Amino acid sequence: MKVIVAEKCGFCPGVKNAISIAEEILARENDVYSLGPIIHNKDVVERLAKTGLKTVDSVEEVESGTVLIRSHGAVPKDIAKLKDKGIKIVDATCVLVKRLQQIASELDAAGYKVVVIGDENHPEVRAVVGCASDVVVIADEADLHKLPKSGKLGIVCQTTQSPEHFGRMLGAIGQYGFGELKVINTLCKEAMNRQQSAVELCKKVDIMFVLGSLESANTRKLAELCKKYNKQTFHLQNWDEFDKNILFGKGTAGVTAGASTPEWIIEEFVKNLGNFDGSGF
Ligand code: SF4
């Protein structure tokens, strides 16, 4: 099987930074917590757990040691609670997520109703919501009813949304006829590059594999996008989920991976797929 790997795929700088900070702390301390899984990839979470990283769901579970804030950031009131308890905090929030939080807070202070285009259950969005007093989160057109009837809106976007979706939602919001819309582009270039490079690859191959956790928002977005350009797109977590029957009649396979998918998962998949000789049908 001929296998082509997307030019841009796998770990982004924000994720790499959070993991290397975690490794540094774990090398010198043994009471270290991550507020939520450090990234949406269970292989990486399990590997770091073996070296001592304890994942907790809430600040109430931590009474001592050091807490790592992952690349998605954390809700300001949770950070304040940790400080009140005297817990040491190491902040690995991605700089682009920090920028989004800062912009939301500034728009709020300037009297805008902050609109975040994104998934309200995603930790990055929950942290942004916590940075402003007056926020509404809209995922798609079905959420437009949440918008106020008038006033001025300050619009931002979850960093990993696609530019197409951001643009479509801005058009839909514009139709409501607000007096003032202030739009700040908070999309992540790394996520966009991965999406663009995956789309280009989709057009050249018979079958497309998107590797990464089903819980990873950016990987799911990548898979949705690839499906639009190549119906034969499969979102798999790793090689264990591969089923050779889907290769029937295919000559060239494309592989991409989300920003939270480690290199070793991509390498193993590409190696095994490349060795596949099509026998057994
Ligand atoms: S996808 Fe972009 S915004 Fe998210 S952690 Fe990576 S670099 Fe930062």
Bound molecules: iron/sulfur cluster
Strand tally: 12
Assign the CATH class of the largest domain.
Alpha Beta
| Tally of separate helices | 9
Strand order of the largest sheet: 1-12-10-11
What is the 3D form?
flat
How many structural domains in the coordinates?
A: 3
What features would you describe in this structure?
With 281 residues, this protein is of the alpha/beta class. The chain is 38% helix and 19% strand. The chain has 9 helices and 12 strands. The strands form 3 sheets. It has a 4-stranded parallel β-sheet, with helices on both faces. The longest helix is centred in the first third of the chain and has 16 residues, at 13-28. It is flat, with a radius of gyration of 21 Å. The chain starts with a strand and ends in a 6-residue tail after the last helix. The mean pLDDT is 94.
Topology:
Blueprint: E1 2-5, H1 13-28, E2 32-35, H2 42-50, E3 53-56, E4 66-69, H3 76-84, E5 88-91, H4 95-109, E6 113-117, H5 123-129, E7 135-138, E8 152-157, H6 163-174, E9 180-183, H7 189-202, E10 207-211, H8 217-229, E11 233-236, E12 252-257, H9 263-275
Parallel strand pairs: 1-12, 2-3, 2-4, 4-5, 6-7, 6-8, 8-9, 10-11, 10-12
This protein binds iron/sulfur cluster.
List its salient traits:
single chain; alpha/beta; Cobalt-precorrin-4 Transmethylase, domain 1; Rossmann fold; 3 domains; four-stranded parallel beta sheet; 12 strands; binds iron/sulfur cluster
